[in-house]
Amino acid sequence: MASPKKEQYRSSYLLFFPLLFIVLILEIVRLPAAASQYRPDILGVMLIFFAMTDPKRINIGMAWISGLLLDILSGAPFGVNGLKVAFEVFMVISQFKRFPSFMLWQQMVIIGIVNMIGSVGVYWICNLIGQAGYNEFFGWSSIVTMLSWPLMLFVGAFLWRLFKISEASSKKEKEI
Q1: Does 99 reside within a domain?
Q2: Phi, psi of 120, deg, nearest 5
Q3: pLDDT of residue 172
Q4: Could you read off the pLDDT of 45-78 as tens digits, one per residue?
Q5: How many domains does the chain fold into?
Q6: Per the domain annotation, does 5 fall within a domain?
């Protein structure tokens, strides 16, 4: 009698690193001046999604490293984007423990507010070190980021199921 075939579940890193590569490319691509003020924080939204679905692997430290990679690629002051995305992930994970159970519009509002606070913090830090010029449109980026959350949620959940990603791939991790 043949035993039923077990489904193989994969680590979330299989999905995270290729998506991180794609998102970093999207973050450094030049946009026309009229569209650049509406650029969403794709990296922050992706990191919040992964921290929400697999917090043991994708956490504040991974967010910090991803932000540092963005700093290196974009030529921003070192650590500014790392601080921003780590702050965003920290706020969502620590302050909103039941974030996945909130309604979609509530999640969008939280993402927008947290992103706006992070953008103001980055703007303030860049002004302190003498790197920023005045830009009155950085609030639009937070609004577009907020509106892009449902798309990231849908695409992330689709890819999560397509690649059969599990939160804990080994039995030891499941027991902990």
Answers
A1: yes
A2: -65, -40
A3: 46
A4: 999 999 999 999 999 999 999 999 999 999 889 9
A5: 1
A6: no
Q: Is 32 within a domain? A: no
pLDDT above 70 covers what percent of the chain?
A: 88
Residue-range definition of the domain harbouring residue 92 = 13-23+37-167
Give 75-93 pLDDT, tens digit per residue: 889 999 999 999 999 999 9
- The answer to whether residue 6 is domain-embedded is no
In this prediction the pTM is: 0.88
The CA distance from 92 to 115, in Å, is 10
Half-sphere exposure of 116 (CA within 13 A, CB side): 14
Would you tell me how many other CB atoms lie within 10 Å of the CB of residue 53?
18
3-state secondary structure 68-134: HHHHHHHCCCCCHHHHHHHHHHHHHHHHCCCHHHCCHHHHHHHHHHHHHHHHHHHHHHHHHCCCCCC
Q: Could you tell me if 176 and 55 are in contact, meaning their C-beta atoms sit under 8 angstroms apart?
A: no
